[in-house]
Amino acid sequence: MASMTNEDNHCIKLLSFNIQVGMASTHLHHYITQCWKHLLPHSRSFDNLDRIADVISQFDLVALQEADGGSMRSFFINQVEYLAKKADFPHWHQQTNRNLGKFAQHSNGLLSKYKPYQVTTHKLPGLLPGRGVMEARYGTAENPLIILMAHLALSKSARTYQLNFISGLVNQFEHVVVMGDLNCQPNSDEMMMLLRDTNLARPETINNTYPSWKPVRNIDHILTTQTVKIRSLKVINETLSDHLPLAVEIQLPDAVKLSFS
After folding, report:
1. Is the dihedral of CA 170, 241, 19, 251 positive or negative?
2. What confidence tens digit (pLDDT) does each residue in 137-158 have?
3. What gap in Å lies between CA 40 and CA 21, rounded to an integer?
4. What structural domains and CATH numbers belong to the chain?
5. Of 10, 67, 14, which is closest to residue 241 (Cα–Cα)?
6. What are residue 193's phi and psi, to 5 degrees?
7. Is the peptide bond before 211 cis (omega within 30 degrees of 0)?
8. Both ends of the chain: CA-CA distance in Å?
9. Is pLDDT above 50 for 191?
10. Distance between CA 194 and CA 176 in Å, rounded?
11. 132: phi then psi, degrees, rounded to nearest 5
12. Is the pLDDT of residue 52 over 50?
């Protein structure tokens, strides 16, 4: 299919979702009573993945965190590929950041109804390996839309290094979206550093996504540079993980032309 007109691709819907390896959590005690599911397969995992697929199918581009790339705990099924097929996303990409062989394949994922012309994976700095950012480029090389998808570390010092690395990626382009589980709140020192050092816009609202059963922390984010306008942003109240999904509709600049193929 040829590139779409600007009227067609004027706005697109994005979703960021930490899916916790397909595990639904609805109470704090599930971290203890269901912790074995992080290591071993369980019969209800595909039921929850199918529910996730129903939610994400209405979006144009989805960034996944804490997906399993195909190990014992996921019945050796690549969860990124599974969700892409179930939710009818023709384009999908996976980044395995922590490879524990048959026991776990900790991954980020990209599901897309538009075709990126380039996808690159980057390792993020930190004392402990296993964090990464995916970079997807859409449109044309002359006027690309850059989507950066990440899952950051739990420690503040590591996140500071990681967001500094991401700042360097953001500053190479004009039209950028940063999305993912950044593990820090909007007023944190490391988030303020990111906003200070880039052209990313400051979030205008608090959107608590964690924990899913009683969200009190705003640690999942979708940020855009000044040329990419946010038309709406909301948290989706679906307890399919220990995080709630974060959804946004963005308005693309006229220069960006997307394509399905």
Report:
1. negative
2. 999 999 999 999 999 999 999 9
3. 11
4. 11-251 (3.60.10.10)
5. 67
6. -65, -45
7. yes
8. 6
9. yes
10. 13
11. -155, 170
12. yes
